[in-house]
Automatic annotation (TrEMBL):
InterPro entries: Ribosomal_bL17, Ribosomal_bL17_sf. One of its GO terms (molecular function) is structural constituent of ribosome. Keywords: Ribonucleoprotein, Ribosomal protein. Belongs to the bacterial ribosomal protein bL17 family. This is 50S ribosomal protein L17. NCBIfam families: L17. It comes from Chondromyces apiculatus DSM 436. GO terms for biological process: translation. Signal peptide: none annotated. One of its GO terms (cellular component) is large ribosomal subunit.
Amino acid sequence: MLRNLAANLITHERIETTEAKAKELRRVAERLISKATRLGAVAYTPTAELAVGDRAKRLHVERLLGSYIPRWGVKSDGSKVDIIAKVLGELSKRFEGRPGGYTRIVKLGPRRGDNAPMTLIEFIDAAPIAESGPTQASAVTAAEPQVPVSAAG
């Protein structure tokens, strides 16, 4: 279950799941990304440009990642994504200087059917969530009555 959740998180960069699953998924996903970021520039440099020793290091990390998560994922539009290449290429470059904390968990509230606490787990630099309701900052300002300066007098 965690392997597929990790693959879906990497593929879609944001998934909705229960709070308990999200907390466990955070541990798994951060370890996978840390393995790739420890390689440094070797992770996202094209293989043809690498030295023999660096190719071996990269292959080792590819096999470690591939032993845990599946190689291919499918986006919501139906296109195939190489998950291992995305971790090594895109995510390792994106989180290169960061020492950890690659994911964020946002609590959404209880699920309708069984009242399970639902959360949204995403990478920290993912695009902001498009909400239909008022944001928290605008809800605070809307709750406070606006007093005109001349009437406060």
